[in-house]
Amino acid sequence: RIGPEPINEGAQPLYLDGKTIIVFSASHSFTDDYCLATLTYKSGDPTSSKSWEKSKGCVFSKNVAGGVYGPG
To answer: Contact at 8 Å (CB) between 25 and 7?
Structure first.
């Protein structure tokens, strides 16, 4: 979470090469710090947080040098 509002929302599942990945917003959508992160299902009970691996930070985020401020 980045910015003034700790908001995580908009989960979207992706299925790729037998993996289940959830992409979610990892910051407030009304700031330049808006970014997207992922959860990847490892195994076990999908309702348990231990069954998922969270990305190390954002996988899509702003790039001021490239002029990108809203990666969502």
So the answer is: yes
In angstroms, the CA 33 to CA 38 distance is 16
Residue 49's φ and ψ, nearest 5 degrees, are -65, -25
pTM of the model: 0.74
Do residues 35 and 58 touch, judged by C-beta distance below 8 A?
A: yes
As given in the structure block, the two tokens for residue 37 are 């992160």
Query: What residue type is 61 in one-letter code?
Result: S
Residue with tokens 């969270």: 54
**How would you write the pLDDT of the chain (72 residues) with one tens digit per residue?**
566 666 767 788 999 999 999 998 877 777 777 888 899 999 999 999 999 999 998 888 888 898 877 765
